[in-house]
């Protein structure tokens, strides 16, 4: 045994000893009243939960997933997540409203956060990551001891600030360990927990789903059953579409895939039969998969939009309630400390980071709409914390691009429905496969016709109909030499699958007016009556109709669409051409459930945030006809040369006007004359008539 092996064994032994000490003390708590009944109840329930985590760890480590029946595993999974299911959430300490009602405002918020953090142990217990259990077990005991001491000594409670300090130092003390783990999971394929499940499981035995430790609901089980029942040819087509789009993204972007060594796989449980084939394809491209869990612990920076692999969401309100838990500790020191340890982690994995090629993402859609309830009891970032979080996101993005340069990596995204979309699931799934594999060359030719017309203009005018109040004028980048340059990229099926859009970075000066959509889902959240008003390309005003109080509507948009920025530019203007996807959505009545990945191809769309070429503007990009896309910058991104801190917002969200809400889209020439591309939801430009064929199908007319 080497000295290094001995050190590792000693460290592991110390962790085991710490955990045994934790468990011994935790086991005493349920029978140890200290005189304050409501707090006794909280700590007793948390102690029982932690004991359950140890039982779960031992069950998994002892081969329980292989030996238990599917029914037993389902029951165990239900018990792990039952406390936050909607039917029990009203009286769960994970619910800040209940915790505040029972424990008081200050203690309730902090102890609800603590419980949410302890719940992240479900995944860690399945992975056997004892260190993660130890540090949270010790955190719980430190908080409990503070309460017990004050009650026994003074018949009182510790000060809220004392408890906040315990939580604050937990986050800071373990920032370095978790930063290292986070970066390692992203770029290092060795010792990958989920990749082993992906490569070594028998997918016809659905017990494999419970090995992850994620919530397994009907969507995950039925998706897995459905995919294992698909023909090998269909599964291969799905996987090939994903990996070929990824490869083509490097080719179109003039990036060298041969120097890369890893690809990050992101998917929802149930899609393993497809993802195994995709992983095999990637290996033939020289890329080993990394697969990491979507974060739930505050130490790993969870978000409402999941990055990684993930199961079902037992209660979306629970996740929404805890989205601002970092308000407990977010300050300048935390920002600087987190960035410092992240840099150290990237330095340790510098070589692996340069070989990271980017993510291959499988998104899902079809769950019922989620209308979040804003609760006064939830933690919220202050104005200064909002500013700090925006600063942190910007600096963290810069740091990652230093080690994983944007101009050297790529990605691909593809989406499929889940069974909860309804009885149409099976037939819709096959239609989505068809949408994802439409004729590349047909769309390339038609979209080039659109580009020829768009390049004649100085602006585009877009107006809504049927209750859509959009009235926009989008200013276009001036093309100096139309024989060698173009303003719009001809986008078929590479990084964004399916095919079907031409897009540009619009000029901000002169971009004016109102963008309005009646209903849209963005980053998993529903917006009703969303309205953004632009002046010189910047969002100057905004509202929606989600809540009765206007301040709640504005706060909802600022937090979840503007990502806490005061304003954002229009970073992209595009014309979607995938009428086949539009007809499929109308056929099944699922327009409001489609992800933006597909919805953006079903009409003109407008992104708020950075341009499509963010941080890679210097890379020359060419259309299939050989002309270079000249419109890669706008007035904001150009600030990178003089005021780089102001050049990027590190977000990009597409908002689509569907064809049925579109009255007119026209190109405006310099002399004021117009070329109409779309009128009343139909393509009217000569050479684009084939796009109307799906719209004229009897099935579509029946549903219009």
For the sheet with most strands, the description reads:
8 strands, antiparallel
SS elements, strand count: 20
Whole-Å distance between the termini?
73 Å
Radius of gyration from the alpha-carbon trace, in angstroms = 26 Å
Which terms would index this structure?
44% helix; 8-stranded antiparallel β-sheet; 25 helices; single chain; 3 domains; disordered C terminus; alpha+beta; globular; 20 strands; 704 residues; 16% strand; 5-stranded parallel β-sheet
Structural description of this entry:
The chain is of the alpha+beta class and about 700 residues long. An eight-stranded antiparallel beta sheet has the order 13-12-11-7-6-18-19-20, covered by helices on one side. Strands 1, 2, 3, 4 and 5 form a five-stranded parallel beta sheet that branches. α6 (about 95-105) crosses α7. The longest helix has 26 residues, at about 5-30. It is globular. The chain starts with a helix and ends with a helix.
């Amino acid at each position: 045994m080497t000295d290094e092996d001995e050190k590792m064994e000693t460290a592991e032994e110390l962790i085991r000893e710490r955990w045994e000490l934790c468990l011994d003390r935790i086991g005493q708590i349920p029978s140890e009243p200290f005189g304050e009944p409501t707090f006794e109840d909280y700590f007793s329930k948390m102690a029982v939960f932690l004991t359950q985590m140890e039982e779960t760890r031992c069950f998994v480590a002892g081969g329980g997933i292989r030996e238990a029946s599917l029914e037993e595993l389902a029951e165990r999974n239900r018990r792990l997540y039952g406390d936050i299911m909607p039917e029990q959430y009203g009286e769960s300490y994970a619910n800040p409203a209940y915790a505040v009602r029972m424990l008081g405002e200050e203690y309730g918020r902090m102890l609800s956060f603590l419980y949410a953090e302890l719940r992240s142990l479900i995944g860690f217990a399945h992975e056997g990551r004892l260190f993660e259990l130890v540090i949270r077990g010790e955190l719980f005991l430190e908080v409990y001891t503070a309460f017990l001491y004050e009650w026994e000594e003074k018949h009182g409670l510790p000060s809220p600030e004392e408890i906040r300090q315990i939580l604050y130092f937990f986050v800071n003390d373990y920032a370095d360990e978790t930063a290292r783990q986070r970066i390692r999971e992203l770029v290092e394929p060795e010792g990958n927990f989920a990749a082993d499940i992906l490569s070594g499981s028998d997918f016809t035995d659905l017990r494999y789903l419970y090995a992850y430790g994620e919530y397994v609901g009907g969507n995950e089980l039925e998706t897995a059953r459905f995919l294992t029942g698909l023909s090998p040819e269909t599964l291969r087509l799905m996987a090939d579409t994903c990996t070929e789009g990824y490869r083509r993204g490097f080719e179109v972007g003039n990036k060298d895939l041969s120097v890369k060594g890893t690809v990050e796989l992101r998917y929802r449980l149930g899609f393993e039969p497809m993802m195994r084939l995709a992983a095999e394809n990637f290996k033939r491209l020289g890329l080993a998969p990394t697969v990491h869990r979507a974060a739930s612990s505050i130490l790993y920076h969870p978000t409402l939009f999941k990055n990684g692999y993930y199961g079902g969401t037992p209660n979306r309100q629970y996740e929404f309630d805890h989205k601002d838990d970092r308000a407990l500790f977010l300050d300048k020191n935390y920002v600087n400390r987190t960035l410092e340890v992240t840099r150290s982690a990237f330095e340790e994995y510098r070589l692996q980071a340069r070989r990271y090629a980017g993510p291959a993402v499988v998104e899902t859609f079809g769950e019922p709409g989620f209308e979040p309830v804003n609760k006064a009891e939830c933690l919220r970032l202050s104005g200064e914390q909002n500013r700090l979080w925006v600063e942190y996101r910007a600096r963290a993005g810069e740091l990652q691009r230093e080690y994983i340069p944007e101009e050297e990596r790529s990605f691909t995204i593809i989406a499929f429905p889940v069974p909860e979309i309804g009885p149409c699931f099976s037939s819709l799934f096959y239609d989505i496969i068809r949408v994802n594999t439409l004729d590349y060359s047909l769309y390339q030719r038609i979209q080039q016709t659109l580009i020829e017309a768009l390049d004649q203009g100085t602006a585009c005018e877009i107006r809504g109909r049927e209750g859509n109040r959009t009235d926009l004028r989008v200013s276009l980048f001036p093309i100096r030499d139309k024989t060698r340059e173009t303003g719009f990229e001809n986008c078929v099926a590479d990084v964004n699958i399916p095919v079907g859009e031409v897009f540009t970075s619009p000029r901000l000066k002169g971009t004016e007016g109102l963008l309005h959509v009646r209903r849209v889902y963005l980053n998993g959240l529903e917006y009703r009556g969303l309205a953004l008003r632009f002046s010189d390309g910047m969002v100057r005003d905004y509202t929606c109709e989600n809540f009765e109080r206007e301040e709640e509507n504005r706060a909802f948009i600022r937090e979840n669409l503007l990502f806490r920025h005061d304003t954002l530019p229009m970073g992209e203007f595009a014309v979607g051409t995938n009428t086949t996807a539009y007809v499929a959505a109308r056929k099944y009545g699922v327009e409001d459930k489609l992800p933006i990945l597909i919805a953006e191809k079903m009409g003109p769309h407008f992104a708020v945030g950075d341009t499509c070429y963010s941080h890679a503007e210097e890379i020359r990009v060419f259309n299939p006809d050989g002309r270079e896309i000249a419109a890669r910058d706008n007035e904001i991104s150009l600030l990178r040369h003089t005021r780089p801190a102001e050049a990027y917002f590190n977000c990009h969200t597409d908002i689509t006007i569907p064809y049925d809400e579109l009255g007119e889209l026209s190109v405006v020439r310099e002399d004021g004359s117009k070329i109409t591309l779309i009128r009343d939801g139909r393509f009217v430009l000569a050479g684009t008539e084939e796009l109307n064929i799906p719209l004229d199908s009897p099935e579509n007319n029946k549903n219009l």
